[in-house]
Protein 1
Amino acid sequence: MLNRRDVIYLYDGSFMGFLSAVYDCNSEHTYPYDFEVVENGQQTLIRQYRHCIHSDKKAQLVASSVVNHAGKAAFEHLYCAFLSQLENKEMTLFEFIRLCMKHGAGIVNMLQLDCPNRVISASRAATNEAHMYRQFIRFGELENGVYYAQVEPKNDVLPLIADHFARRYASMPFIIHDSVHGQCIVYNGKELQIVDASSMPAVHFSERELACRELWKQFYDSIEIKERHNEKCRMAHMPKRFWKFLTEL
């Protein structure tokens, strides 16, 4: 039984940092008032604050507990929902973890309950968007030979697509820049990292890239049958928010 207290647990914003904070809550038998990211937290005098140190060991214990009690599917929903735009995210996921401990693997089918319903819906939203970006990302060659792509996802999809592109372009150095969440996938042909990109420098495409883009636009325009131009059909196959970074459009 956890004791309800007006304690806000501060963590570093990462998934493992959140699981570390969950571990601290359980070890201290505390049901928190909330969780907040350290840099975003606005401390008040009416709440107690607990700074949680990122610990891979603590986080792994919580992750293993979720998998052992509720299975890998529940843990995957937990992780993907953390990357989503789920409202009141941390407290919802904290409650979801508690329900995993209580109900086991059946929790992923208990969609009549508000908490698992919201978590799984958010998880699916993140994974569906990641799937679309695996198809629609367009790279361009920079002056230094690195290939660059910019994206503006609703959810934090870079962790979900990084391995896919590293496998697909195993020998090609590339950068995928998420300008919404201020981070980049950086791959040098050997090592893969997701790094902060809140102050991304201006990019400059190579002359060859610019020439190829111009030729592709001309080809795309020339093969279109004007009488059959259909914006609604195009949007059905590719949502309009993806068009911004398509070379041909």
Protein 2
Amino acid sequence: MSLNLSQRFNNLNIAEKLIAINVLCFAIPAFLRVFFFLFNSQGGDLFKYFNLPANLSQYINQPWSIITYSFLHGGFFHLLFNMLVLYYVGKMFIAYIGSKKFLSIYFMGVIAGGIAFMLTYNLFPVFRVVVGVSDLVGASAGVMAILIFMCGYVPKMRINFFFFNIPFYVLGIGLVIYDLLTIPLNNNAGGSIAHLGGAALGLYSVYQYKLGKSFGSSFEKLIDSIVNYFNFSSPRSKFRVNKNENYKTKKRHKKSKQSQESQEKIEKILKKISQSGYQSLSQDEKEFLFNKED
């Protein structure tokens, strides 16, 4: 059973893996809180060390929280909305750009949102009273970075938003304006600020990407090293590495050729979208685009 789950997890794309991890990080603490409650224990307080505190002196004692806060959510609908957006926009991002860039933009958005949250709460007088008791949770900043990146990358692609069919960039602008205007109007000012931080990172990233600049390449290398560190191989698989080298070389060349042909097909599809819109694609082209993973 565990092997089957492991295989299924490995078959997911990187966005789906993030969603699975977020769901687990929501479910496990929820069940543990029930356990702590029944035994009248204060163990539930441990989870606050994974939230991102607004107070800088508190943050110094838990620097990991600049990442871990993104795996925690304040409620089921908070999780559900973030994961739905991450699924659809993440799938699109991976098809257009690739998994490696997706992961770097997502986590840079998380960090940018966290920094924006802490700076705002420590700089502006209106938050002075609550800075010591405020913290941040949720994947929204990373999701917003991915969303705004795609809004800038394929701005004219039309999408269905409730009963409206609108260009992608209109959705992005609308969400940014909404977050900006709701800062003083709700109890989640920190969340709105984090969204704007993630959006700013996504916008700057797509600008650099379109210029052909390698923004975030150092961060990508860091993520690669972390992923490779946990990519363990069994002893048996290590013995196979040196066998049939000629076959494997041919296989790599074949894969490289297929990758090049795939990239050329994607470029043709992108050109078609920019000229005629997403709705002009055939069903085969849509399936190819969304089943492609770098």
